[in-house]
Each structure stands twice: as structure tokens, then as C-alpha cells.
Amino acid sequence: MIGHRFTKYIPGNTRNAGFDNLLKLFLQLIVVTSGDVSEALNWMNQLDQKYNMTSDNYGMGDFIDDLKKQKFIQEDESGKVIKLTVKSERTIRRQSLEEIFSKMKKSTLGNHSTPYSGHGDELTSERREYYFGDTLDQIDITSSIKNAQINHGLDDFKLTERDLEIEEQDYKSINSTVLMIDISHSMILYGEDRITPAKKVAMALSELITTKYPKDTLDVIVFGNDAWKIEVKDLPYLEVGPFHTNTVAGLNLAIDILRRRKTNNKQIFMITDGKPTCLKIGIKYYKNSFGLDRKIINKTLDQASYCRKLGVTITTFMIARDPYLQEFVREFTKTNRGRAFYSNLDGLGDFIFEDYIRNRRKHLH
After folding, report:
1. Domain 175-360 belongs in CATH node 3.40.50.2300
2. What does the pLDDT look like over 120-154, one tens digit per residue?
3. Residues of 243-263 as b/e, b for ≥16 C-beta within 10 angstroms?
4. In 101-226, alpha helices (H)
5. Domain boundary assignment for the chain
6. Contact by Cβ (8 Å): 18, 64
7. CA angle 360-361-363, nearest 5°?
């Protein structure tokens, strides 16, 4: 047994340590400020004055210089506006993944195991005869040639369909997901920031899919009075607008996206904190923020029913505790035969993580 070995203590690079700690805070604030670098740095200066985050050896000026040197921020052509770089956007997504999905490790395969055999990545020990529809990569060439020799002999060698032998593979499900984020004004009402956790979850989910499940697809859409698709790289800059909540428009867009996906397993994740309050009829908007408007609610339930007919499961993550809103979500979920979670802001990522991984292990049809 070697036991413990003691060596001379050599202090680490305090400059690097100071930068790494400040960088984590800076990237958190960038999400809150929707990508406003100047505002985030101003907040950091205020926090530094109050809590003495920096030292005499490494101050905020040094930190800003290092951000530029390491290409986390850059000035625009005029030299007056500081903006984020692609490196920063990628680091924010990775940090969100580490924060919410810290137990997940990188994998190179779309690895959603199911109890079924089929087209997949991992071979099993099971063999069977060829059936119409089997692909060429499933054929065990060596065993098939051996079967042909036994069945026909070397003098009259030929390979027929009856000689082919198939290697069974563990089925790997591939899933297409649309993440809907509510950006109506209620997401920042009453002094509670609900949009920042939603953005973090979207960034973490995208990073999880690209690293662990690269065969899956994730599309992100936002909905207020209308709905539109955004790129994952745009998430840090996402802001809440003076909008009502047009859930029907969001679901319509999600369905259009999923129709174009070639996968069998399709689902919608919807993050919202309020009831549907808006419809677009022709070129005009019908809005009603008071109570549950049956005209709006019925249209929303119709979309839930349509998604069910298409085999698209809707999972609703409700960031609200109002009993009448929860009653609407229950009715919506029952209509779609989907799932609903009533989450606080801190637990939102955990709920989505658990549900996403669980869905990957089964057929949704």
C-alpha cells in the first residue's frame, strides 16, 4: 500500500481562477439581460463593489481584457457596441447543460434503447431468416454464404433468399421534438423572471441532443400574439414582448414542423405560465385576458385533439399554480392524452430532463 504522498504546495494561477469564476457569472447574466453585454458588465461592476468579487491582482478591467483576448466578446465595426461571439453562445449552451443535466455524459450515438428489436446500432446474438423489408446492413454475409454452400453445394453454388440470415439489432428510437416557449408579457409579470429558466432549458436540451442524441431533432418556437421559429443560437437574446398568448398559433406551427420530419416518434414540449388569451382570425386578433374565454379555449382544445390524431404527444410544463389554470391544463392534457407538469422555476429543467429521457426509451405510437 503506497499511502499518502506529500509534496511542496505550488499556488495555482490566480489570474485564471479569477477569470473562470467571473466568466460563469458573466454568462449567467448574459442570459438574464438577453445578450446585452454592456448591461451584464454593468451589473457585474455593481456586484463587485458590493461583494468584492475581484482582488487587487485581478480586477474587472483585467476580466474584460481577457474576455476580448479569449474571443468571448468583440466590438462591432463602429467600435462602440460590444457583442457576444459564437464561442460565447456555445459556452452558454454548454454551461446550461452542465447546470441542468449535470449527470449526462457525451455520446456519439442516438442511444434511446427500447424493448423492441429493429433498425439500430447494437448487434444481438439472435439470428433469423430473411423477411421482405429487411435492409442489407442486417444480413450476416458469412452465415448466409455458409447456408448457401450447405443448401446447394460448391458445384452448383448460388445464393437465394432462403439462404440469407439476419442479425437482430437493438432498436434505437429516433425522436423529433418541438419546444414551445411562451413569450407573452405574463412571463415577467409580478416581478418574477420566468423567461430566463425557459431559455436555459431550451439551450440545455439542444446541447443534450447534439451531444448525446445527435440523430434526434429539436426545433424551438416562441409564441405570443403569433408564433415563429427561432434558432438555438438566438436563445440568449430572446425577450418577452407585449403579447397575449396565442397557443393555437404555436401548436399550428409545431405541427407543420413535425409533418416535415421523417421520424415516427414526434412530440411537443410546451412551457407556459398562463391561459390562452388570443386567436388570429383572418388578419385580425381576437383577445380576451379575463377568465377562460370559451371561444379561445375550444380552438386550443381542437388543436390538442388534432395532435392526438396525428400521434403527437404534448407535454405541458405549467409555471403557474392558479387552480382554474390547472383545471384548463388538465382538460387540455386529457384531450391530447399527453402529460402535464406543474413546476416551479427551479425544478423546470429536472422535469423536462426526466420526461425527455423516459420518452426516448419507448415508442410514442
Report:
1. no
2. 444 455 677 877 777 777 778 888 888 888 888 77
3. bbbbbbbbbbbbbebbeebee
4. 141-152, 195-212
5. 14-84, 116-172, 175-360
6. no
7. 85
